[in-house]
Amino acid sequence: MEIPRHWRLKKQRYALVGEVCPHCDARLFPPRDVCPECGGEAKQPYTFSGRGEVYSFTIMHDAPTGYDEQAPYTVALVKLVEGPVITAQLTDLGEQPVEIGMPVEMVTRKIRQDGDASGLLVYGYKFRPVMQQ
Amino acid sequence: MREVVITGIGQVPVGEHWEISLRSLAARAIQAARHDAGDPEIQALYVGNLLAPTISHQSNLGTLLSDTVALKGIESWTVEAADASGAAALRMGYLAIASGFVDTAVVVGVEKYTDMVGPRLESAVSQMTDYDWEAVEGLTPTAQAGLLMQRYLHEFPQPRELLGAFPLLMHANAVANPNAMFRKAVKPGAYAGAEPTNPPLNVYDTAPYADGAAAVILTTPDRAQAFPRPLVRISGSSVVIDRLALHDRPWLLGFEAVSHSLERACRTAGILPTDVDFLEISDTFSIFAPLVLEAAGFAPRGRAAQLAAEGIFNQDGRLPLNAMGGSKGRGHPLAATGMYQVVEAVQQLRGEAGASQLPRARRGMTITLGGPASTVVTHILERRDA
Amino acid sequence: MTEYQNEKVLLQPNRPVGVIGYGAYVPRYRLPSTEVSRIWTGKASMGPVKEKAVAGLDEDVITMSIEAARNALLRAGIPATALRAVWVGSESHPYAVKPTGTLVAEAIGASTHINAGDWEFACKAGTEAFVASMGLVGSGMADYALAIGMDTAQGRPGDALEYTAASGGAAYILGPADQALATIEAAYSYVSDTPDFWRRAGQTYPSHGQRFTGEPAYFKHITEAGTRLMKELGVTAADFQYAIFHQPNTKFPQRVAGMLGFTPEQNKPGLLSPVIGNTYAGAALIGLTATLDIAQPGDRILMVSFGSGAGSDAIAFRVTDAIEERRNKALSTADYIARRTEIDYATYVRYRGKLEM
After folding, report:
1. A131 → closest Cβ in C59, C60, C335
2. Contact between A123 and C57 using a beta-carbon 8 Å cutoff
3. Which residues in A lie closer than 8 A to residue C109 (C-beta atoms)?
4. Is C113 tagged catalytic?
5. CA-CA distances (angstroms) from residue B166 to B170, B258, C206?
6. pLDDT per residue over B215-233, tens digit each?
7. pTM, two decimal places
8. What does the alpha-carbon distance between residue B46 and residue B89 come to, in Å, rounded to a whole number?
9. ipTM
10. Residue B211: beta bridge partners?
11. What residues contact C117, with CB distance under 8 A and at least 6 apart?
12. H-helix or E-strand containing A28?
């Protein structure tokens, strides 16, 4: 059971809370103790907008444990508008084909369960095609 | 700094060895290497292994394997660098001998993949990705290759089937390798017609995981004077890391660690990259081949597959690549792969590669990848004539 | 023991309260009722609704509540840290023990000084949380409270409820009336022990009393609550522009509307069950979001929910001038309804976890 692990990261997973480096203004996700851009200390929280575009994607049929029940699913590299690229599943695609450059938005979804049906549910970010008003 | 030479080599055929245990696999390779070297006195055993703690519930392989081959009271531990663990263990052995602290060492790369079955294996292998930010999203090393290939085709548009040039070459080269897992050549149309497994990848784009063990004996030239066959020296050695998560790389397709590792190893050896006669690289996934070759400067960006189709990397081409099958033909015994690359390179350099023997083999380069070039280990090996 | 005479029958807090923000959520997938009948009767014929909304593999009451709450916050224009309660009513909370509310609160950025217990009263779990929020804010204990009704309701395979049991719901932020886009004039709850529909602990699917769910349950409680509210307020159906009722199917809300004196036009904007099915604890509340999406300043709206077991919450609203500026700050109910991917029965069974493996 990986309870503390997921609990530590809930703000990042549920709401894309990263960091802004006070020295060089880089937006960082995930948060780190050391800014990879300028090497300075970075500890100021920054909540990302959740908007981004698909940078690359692949469709997974051979899934690891805990994800096999959801297969097939699409995993993507999403470039957030603020700069960082993150790895996330795409969801709610419907019949829409995925294309590099497609605008997407963050939603909080069930990622998997920790172990079996008695285990904790793990929630986190996924991205879906932008819903227009 | 002392010169380091390779005397003995040993390898087990790559495969699904249901009847052979982890320790026995390693023992066979180690003993073969020791006998090949004339059974010298061993001071150290460096083990390259990735999955034993997860799949075989076995850690402290340094102690276990030394014990298994009756090496008592020596220096020994495991080196881990994803599936470059075996190659990184070679680096460890090289440093130990070159520094003067160890005189003769065994280096073994071993992987026992088949101690477990099912999706838990995919999870185990995914430990080499960034667990908190890649694996937890359902990403596996296969998915990373899919992301790389998708982006590669976007940035360097070319016919999809052109990328099949590498897997096809690997399978052709493996036919004559008795230790390779797949020894049948594949028809050209098979790649283009293959069903996608994990789109955009098809079955030929993924080197299957398997069991394996390969080992070498390292020592100094003065201790190898009586060695009856050609000695091979390690003239260059480097390990370089990159950002672990693919999404943190400044350019996804850069494989920067390859260029840096290559450059450092060549600098130590006092050569240019073009001074090598043949290459052994990790084609764990078919897309790694063009990415490594292009990062290393052996092909312009986006053009490696085209050059492969033209025969540049064939056994009789300008720069023979993976002459005995590479990972696609050999199979991928993860941590052990790097040591198979070295063992095969030594066979070539000694003129002992049988039907796979390259006509010109005085200096070779092995480039072993941990993950998608998250760690890159480069060694330059050359024939040491007296 | 003589009956206690309440000073006031209507639930009206000392401090007037209203809806500061609202948000809906409906998942993407739709199962036509013809699919259900095709499997279970051999003929593809229309059921009690045209189609119902089905949650995807990675969705549940927690994820859907988070999105509805985010929409409500966009319309409310307040920071999530201003909320003092995050209350989710559902009959399909993902955990039997561990509140949906705490996770929703964390995801939307609420503070730690909140109350976040879960609510259950079948299809009126959401309006129950709504009435409690009125009290929390109206008493002055809090300035803002979030009440959500959301469900991923299940029907036993082959049961009549399978045609209609659907996923969706809505979130409401309540606060002081002078900041509201719709003020709350009064509420009135009517509750009795009526066993029309229930699910024992540990059971996967509910059981119901067939036709007993009609007269003694649905119609009795809605008409009692609606009639009493209107009587105490001194109004009739004609005084309202719109009315929304709990909508387990198409016919029940149409009939009860008529019984209370409302015309089909008054019920029309809030009648969503034909296209999304019965979203249980979300049903009346999402009918209300659809109505608020089109209502004009000054409009009066009556909403009467119904929850099996049984009870109804009748609530009267008056839309303010603030509605026009606030309602376009987030996706509308119609935006979610328009987002539609049809699935077949086999896909539905997989998505809803009805296969025993």
Report:
1. C335
2. no
3. 15, 47
4. no
5. 6, 18, 58
6. 999 999 999 999 999 999 9
7. 0.93
8. 6
9. 0.95
10. B15
11. C87, C99, C101
12. strand A27-28
Q: Which of residues 310-369 of B touch A (CB under 8 A)?
A: none
Identity of the amino acid at B133: W
User: In this structure, what token pair is assigned to residue B137?
Assistant: 């999203």
With beta carbons under 8 A apart, name residues in chain B contacting A57: 146-147, 150
Q: Would you call C67 and A107 a contact, using CB atoms and an 8 Å cutoff?
A: yes
User: What's chain B's average pLDDT?
Assistant: 97
Which residues of chain C, if any, have pLDDT below 50? none
SS (H, E, C) C203-234: CCCCEECHHHHHHHHHHHHHHHHHHHHHHHHC
C246 is catalytic: yes
Report how far residue C59's alpha carbon sits from residue C158's, in angstroms, rounded to the nearest whole number: 23
Question: How far apart (Å, rounded) are the C-alpha atoms in residues C247 and C252?
Answer: 7
CA–CA separation, B315 and B330 (whole Å):
16
Pairing state between β B44-48 and A51-60: unpaired
Query: Is A30 in Cβ contact with B139 (below 8 Å)?
Result: no
Reported confidence tier of residue B31, pLDDT bands at 50, 70, 90:
very high
Contact (CB<8Å) A86/B133: yes
- Indicate the pLDDT class of residue A133, thresholds 50, 70 and 90: confident
Furthest CA-CA distance within chain A:
46
Most C CBs within 10 Å, among A70, A114, A123, A132, to test the C interface: A123
Cα separation, C269 vs C50, whole angstroms? 17
Secondary structure letter of residue B81 according to DSSP: B
Q: Quick one: which of C15, C49, C71, C28 has its CA closest to C293?
A: C71
Enumerate the H helices of chain B as residue ranges.
22-36, 52-55, 61-68, 85-99, 119-125, 141-155, 165-174, 188-192, 256-269, 288-296, 304-309, 326-330, 337-350
Contact A30 B134 (CB under 8 A): no
B164: left (phi over 0), alpha (psi -120 to 50) or beta: alpha
Using the Cα atoms of residue B127, residue B130, residue B131 and residue B137 in order, give the sign of their dihedral. negative
CB contact under 8 A, C62 and A47: no
The verdict on whether C123 is a catalytic residue reads: yes
pLDDT tens, position by position, C212-264:
889 999 999 999 999 999 999 999 999 999 999 999 999 999 999 999 999 99
Kindly state whether B138 is in contact with chain A, defined as any CB-CB distance less than 8 angstroms. Answer: yes
How many CB atoms neighbour CB A103 within 10 A?
A: 12
The token pair at C139 is 């008493």
Q: How far is residue B256's CA from residue B241's CA, in Å, rounded to a whole number?
A: 9
Q: Which chains touch B (3 or more CB pairs under 8 A)?
A: A
Contacts of A130 (CB under 8 A, 6+ apart): A51, A103, A104, A105
Neighbouring C-beta atoms of residue B66, cutoff 10 Å: 22
Kindly state the tokens that stand for C253: 């809300």
Is A123 touching C (CB cutoff 8 A)?
A: yes
- For residue C176, give the DSSP letter: E
- How many angstroms separate the first and last alpha carbons of chain A? 41
Q: Cα angle at B314 between B210 and B256, to 5 degrees?
A: 65
Residue type, C317: F
Contact C260, C283 (CB under 8 A): no
Write the DSSP assignment of B260-317 as a string of letters.
Answer: HHHHHHHHHHT--GGG-SEEEE--SBTTHHHHHHHHHTSS-TT-HHHHHHTTTTSTTS
Cβ(B119)–Cβ(A65) below 8 Å: yes
Q: Do C108 and A15 touch (CB under 8 A)?
A: yes
A–B: how many Cβ contacts below 8 A?
106
Chains A and B touch (3+ CB pairs under 8 A): yes
* Model confidence pLDDT, tens digit, residues A10-43: 999 999 999 999 999 999 998 888 898 899 887 8
